[in-house]
Amino acid sequence: MSVLDRLAGLAGIEPFYHDIWGNRRETSDATKRALLRAMGLAAGTDDEAQASLRRLDEAGWRRLLPPVLVVEEGELPDLAVALPAGMDDAELAWWLTEESGFAHSGHARVGELPQSGTAVLEGLAFERRTLAARLPVRLPLGYHRLTVTVRLPGVGGTLEGTTTLILTPARCMTVDEAVPGGRTWGIGVQLYSLRSDEDWGVGDFSVLGRFAEVAARQGAGLVGLNPLHALFPADPNHIGPYSPSSRSFLNILYIDPAAVPELDSTPGAQEQIASPAFRQRLAAARTAALVDYPLAAGLKLPVLEALHATFRSLPADHPRRQSFEAFRQVMGEPLRRQAVFEALHEHFFRQDATRWMWRSWPPAYHNPASPEVEAFAAGKADRVAFYEYLQWEADRQLGTAAERGRAAGLSVGFYRDLAVAVHPGGGAAWADQGILVQGANVGAPPDQFNLKGQNWGLAPLSPIGLREAAYGPFVALLRSNMRHAGALRIDHVMALQHLFWIPEDGSDGAYVEYPFRDLLRIVALESRRNRCIVIGEDLGTVPEGFRPALERAGILSYRVLYFERSADGGFKAPAEYPQGALASVSTHDLAAFKGFWTGHDLDWRRRLDLYPTEAARDRDAWDRGVDRWRLLQALGREGLRPASYPTDEGDQPYRPELAAAVHAYMARTPSQIVMAQIEDALQEVEQANLPGTVDEHPNWRRRLSVTVEQLAEDPEVQRILAPLKDPAAGRGGTPTG
Q1: What gap in Å lies between CA 697 and CA 706, rounded to an integer?
Q2: Which strand (E) or helix (H) includes residue 500?
Q3: Could you tell me the domains of the chain?
Q4: How would you classify the pairing of strands 498-503 and 510-513?
Q5: Residues in domain MalQ N-terminal beta-sandwich (predicted)?
Q6: pTM for this one?
Q7: For residues 648 and 406, what is the distance between their CA atoms, to the nearest angstrom?
Q8: Phi and psi angles of residue 489, each rounded to the nearest 5 degrees, phi first
Q9: What is the spatial distance between Cα 431 and Cα 426, in angstroms, rounded to a whole number?
Q10: Nearest to 4, CA basis, from 28, 32, 26
Q11: Secondary structure of 683-694 in the HEC alphabet?
């Protein structure tokens, strides 16, 4: 094996992968060198690769303890201390501080500890001594800190090392633990799409609270949401929820200014809102068929600035000020860095639109800890505090919406969506440069839907950086997205095991391995701590053995009607769906059911010239006709084909009773959660996002055709959702809320 291959293997770059057709694709040397460079490991020449390999190889021997050790409850930690050889008479002392602060300690002579390995580095001998048997057998679940010191005999010096010991449960919080009977159903919605009689041109947390109450009254147990991640307030044209600035903070455009308490004591803002010019713009935003994000931002941000000025004048002992300070304390330095980033992004972008990416800023501002950044933050302290205030208010309003849903009867509550990665020009990539990789993007290899593969333009997490940080950023990410939620959907959950990286230099992509067992265990720990069910979006190319591993960890699979097929291409029977799953007819990236039946999504592809050939276009049209025939056959086998569809012929028109029948079909699956998309309940023909497009299709902008107030009284919605809430619709028990 070459030096380059050994280095790539140690860094987690997989030497090959099998594509969706079963073809083996080798990782080229050029790709290995490019990805290693993105990880901060020089490998342009064999000599550089040899030096990088030596550093990685030696790192584990030149420090006493690894940065982190993740252990499942009931296991004995495989903990060894790395020491120079020949220290048998040295005294080793250890202190284990539990997360609660309770401490254990002990000591031993090095020679008394079992030896578990040896190495020679540059002529110096090292060995590992096992310490696990000396530690307390029973520790509580959580994050503990172990410190070891070794006093050098005869020299008087001391070696010291520290590690984070994470003790985790075997499984996540389960649906059985959260819901009586272990089954429920819900409604999925894109928050921006919600309309109300009082919105400001985009769905907000207040209308979300009303929607949650409507869903609960229908008998739903949860409401599924698109990612609520922070975007770029200085540039409201950047709207993709799966391409965020940070996954740990919220999109401030979802704040309802009318629900901010400071409005009652800010006459200037009240006058601004009441002005004819403002009311005219507000009416235009509210009635538009598509979200006009710049218009919504232009309405909201000046009002929020005025409200923040009022907030700053409140006395320090005011409950709102105290709540804000408590939020800042909980969120800590990451909140401040995100706020500083947003102030800097606003500053440079407004000066020069070509400075949108932080890497295009003056070099002194690339480092969040630089004196220039500190000076900027001090000089713009009010603006930084404004962005902290917006995060706090967004969090408060989301919490209020969640409380409204639970009070109305949502047994699970909201399910939030965690995007797979962040934009490389965003706040997270700027603030956590040891964790977020620059020089490579996240994507997917070629498959039957994207023959050229996909480059999502997102920055991957560094597996090396994650371990060095004792997984702290990953833990914080989970906690942030489990706030005010009863369930968390992890987009492209295969990223816990490996992720497809594409070098920025144009080289072919390759899979990079992540510490799967560790990450899975941490997900289970945070799931239980936050009482949050976890759903893994496992669509696409799924590694062998991956789904069983998720099942063992209590993570629900994600099953979509369109993709659940038998060997002959027909739709699987409801009974063939797994119990440990969330089942749905469609998703945000696929055709709404009415659009699927009418071929509206295929019309879009033809209109936008997305087909490489006429033959591909004609094949899609033919296949859709076959799928309509197969779906009617599947419904017929279950006795669910509507009487208005007298045959299985796929050229029959769409009718509302067909949507009701398809949801009755899903209700008969044993899957513990069944979701209906609000677009399907409303019989919308358009989908939220058309993959492969950016501006050509109005992605992430469509608003629903009715308001939440009208939705509550819509008889067709009641008809389509009825099978999900009617126990008689399902075989073996229909989900109930």
Answers
A1: 21
A2: strand 498-503
A3: 74-168 (2.60.40)
A4: antiparallel
A5: 65-169
A6: 0.95
A7: 42
A8: -95, 125
A9: 9
A10: 32
A11: CCCCCCCCCCCC
